[in-house]
């Protein structure tokens, strides 16, 4: 059965979605963590059960992360996605707190070349576990903040929370804010 709950955060009300077995005793893990307005975010469906207690550990770890006392999540989650997506998502989990890497660096880690680099960006964009799998730590090769399903303002907020050098608010998608585009 699919269960869900909401958790307050600096990013907005996060929707947590998970699965449990029919007996309701064993959780198979977090399936999705999203925020309002996020591209591709799930919507609560008929038949889903509201179960805030099922996510107590998730909420506790999110709270500690946003308080600055947790730098790495340790949560059970349901592995979704294709084999390629799961390889990319595992690479995201290895990016240290407060550091950033480029899309090209992630592509190299998973052995993607040529058109595969674009597929890496697509896989990162489809990451169902916002914050927990730190796709916000992936930036452009030029240091610019690029593509974040929850919006660049939220990406900037998360990087700033972690003290990442790429949190510079003047750099977004390779252009200086306030400077006209060519």
Question: Please, could you describe this protein's structure?
Answer:
This protein is of the alpha/beta class and 182 residues long. The chain contains five helices and eight strands. The strands form three sheets. It has a four-stranded mixed beta sheet with strand order 3-2-1-4, with no helix packed on it. Strands 5-6 form a two-stranded parallel ribbon. Strand 1 (2-7) and strand 2 form a beta hairpin. The longest helix has 12 residues, at 56-67. The chain is globular.
Secondary-structure class? alpha/beta
Residue ranges: pLDDT <50 for 5 or more in a row?
A: 168-182
Number of strands: 8
Helix content class? 25-40%
CATH topology of the largest domain: Arc Repressor Mutant, subunit A
N- to C-terminal separation? 52 Å
**Quaternary structure annotation:** single chain
Biggest beta-sheet profile: 4 strands, mixed
How large a portion of the residues is in β-strands, by DSSP E? 15-25%
Give the count of helical stretches: 5
Identify the notable features of this structure and list them briefly:
two-stranded parallel ribbon; Methylated-DNA--protein-cysteine methyltransferase; 17% strand; Double Stranded RNA Binding Domain; 5 helices; 2 domains; single chain; 8 strands; MethylDNA_cys_MeTrfase_DNAb; globular; Arc Repressor Mutant, subunit A; 28% helix; 182 residues; cytoplasm; alpha/beta; 4-stranded mixed beta sheet
């Amino acid at each position: 059965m699919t269960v869900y709950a909401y958790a307050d955060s600096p990013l907005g009300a996060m929707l947590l979605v998970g699965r449990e077995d029919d007996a309701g005793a064993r959780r198979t893990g977090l399936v999705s963590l999203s925020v309002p307005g996020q591209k591709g975010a799930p919507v609560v469906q008929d038949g889903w059960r509201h179960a805030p207690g099922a996510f107590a550990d998730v909420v506790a770890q999110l709270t500690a992360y946003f308080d600055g006392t947790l730098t790495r999540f340790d949560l059970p989650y349901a592995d979704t996605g294709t084999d390629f997506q799961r390889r990319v998502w595992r690479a995201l989990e290895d990016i240290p707190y407060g550091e950033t890497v480029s899309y090209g660096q992630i592509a190299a880690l998973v052995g993607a070349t040529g058109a595969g680099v674009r597929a890496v960006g697509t896989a990162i964009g489809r990451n169902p576990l916002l914050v927990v799998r730190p796709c916000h730590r992936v930036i452009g090769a030029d240091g610019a903040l690029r593509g974040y399903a929850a919006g660049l303002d939220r990406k900037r907020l998360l990087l700033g929370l972690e003290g990442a050098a790429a949190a510079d608010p003047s750099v977004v998608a390779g252009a200086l804010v306030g400077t006209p585009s060519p």
